[in-house]
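Suppose a colleague, Dr. K., hands you the sequence of a protein chain of 304 amino acids and asks what its three-dimensional shape might be. Before reaching for any lab equipment, you can write down a predicted structure in C-alpha cell form. Begin with the sequence itself:
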Amino acid sequence: MHLLITDSGLGGLSVCAEAERALRAASPDEGVRITYFNAWPEDASGYNDLPDVASRARAFDRALASMAAMQPDRIVIACNTLSIVYEHTAFRRAAAIPVLGIVDCGVDVFHEALTAQPASSIALFGTRTTIESGVHRDRLVEKGITPRRITAVSCHGLAKAIEMDPEGQAIATLIAQCTTTARGADPPGNPLYLGVCCTHYSYVRDEMRAALEDRCGRPVQTLDPGARLVAELLRLAERTREGRASSAPTAEESRTRSRSVTVAVVSKVEMDDHKRRAMARRVEAVSPPTAAALLSYTRVPDLF
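The predicted structure, expressed as C-alpha cells, is then:
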C-alpha cells in the first residue's frame, strides 16, 4: 500500500512519524510505502501568505496533480490549512484518489470531549486560514455545542517559527501572544480544552498548554486530532490488506513487502540543514525512519 501524507511544510511529519510506527507495529510483514509530500509552494511564501482562498486553491491544485501522478492508494492531508483549502480545489470535484483530511478528525475529537463534559469549553488554536474559515467552530455549533463555549485564536506566524527555528525564542513569544488573546476572550467552563488545529503546534502543545493554564488560572487539557488521524490510517491499512489478501502480489508489492514500512520525503523547496536536523530530532524518538527520510529528502524544483 502506498500512502501519501502532505502538509504545507513539515508539521505533518508528526503524523507521518506516528503512522510509520503504528503501521510497522501492526503489520510488520506487510509492505507499506509512505511518501511525505512537502506542499510548501514557494521559498519566500506559504499558503497563508497568499492573498485569498482562490489563489491558495490554485497553488494546492498544482500540488495535488503532482501527488496523483505518484499513484498513491490514498492522499492524507495532515494539515488543517490545506484540508480547508482542499474544499475549494478543482481536484476535489473530480478526485480519482480517496482523500482524508485532518479537520474531520479534529471536529470529532473536540465534539466528543465537549459532549462528555457539558460544563467545559475549548480554545481552538490554528493558522490564520484555519481560524478565519471558522470551519471547526461552525461544525461544532452544527453538532449542538453552544457558541459561547468556543474560543478561536489565530496564531499567525507560529507554524513558520516552529519550522524555521524550532528552538528559537520567537516560538515562546508567539505562544504568549496567542494564549493572552485566548484569555482576553474569557472562555467559560471547566475543564478548558486546548484544541490543536495545526499539526505544527503538536510539537509545542505542552508549552501551549502550560501558557494557557498560566493565563487562564485553571487546568487545561490538550486535544490533538493527530492520534485520531493515525488510528483512521490503521483502519484503512487493515481494510486494504484484507482486500488484497486473496490476490497474488505484483513484483512491486513483493519488493516493498520485503522491506515492511518505508518512508520517503519529497519537497519542491530547498530545506536547509539546520531546519531538517532540528525537525528530525523532534520525530526521531517516535520514528527513526521518518527522521532519516527527512535528512535524506529529495528536492524536485519543478515538483508542482
